[in-house]
TrEMBL record:
Membership in a protein family: Belongs to the YciI family.
InterPro entries noted in UniProt: Dimeric_a/b-barrel, YCII
Species this protein is from: Nonomuraea mangrovi
Name of this protein: YciI family protein
Superkingdom classification of source: Bacteria
SUPFAM superfamilies (UniProt xref): Dimeric alpha+beta barrel
Amino acid sequence: MKYMMFVCTDTAPDTDKSDEPDIDVWVSENDARGRRLEGSVLAPTSAATTVRVRNGKLLVSDGPFTETKEVIVGYDLLECADLDEAIEVARAHPMARAGRLELRPLVDLDG
């Protein structure tokens, strides 16, 4: 099953800095096991563009509309046997301690 893992900042990161995981090791390990299909860091929210259509009119604005301190800073597309495996993959990611990770299963629109 495929999961989109949103990598987010958090206003209350873990204060225990012992044995912090290394992102390069996490990427290499999960790429080698075929559990990480792709991933990337996102440009800052100042580079974002919001697109909406209201009453037939295109509305384009710079950045996100909401004032928030917690933002999506990256993503990883995972392929795992089930949610339990996806949670274990996310648990080992450095941002599980420095931020937060949101896992969402992809919906199979073909079946």
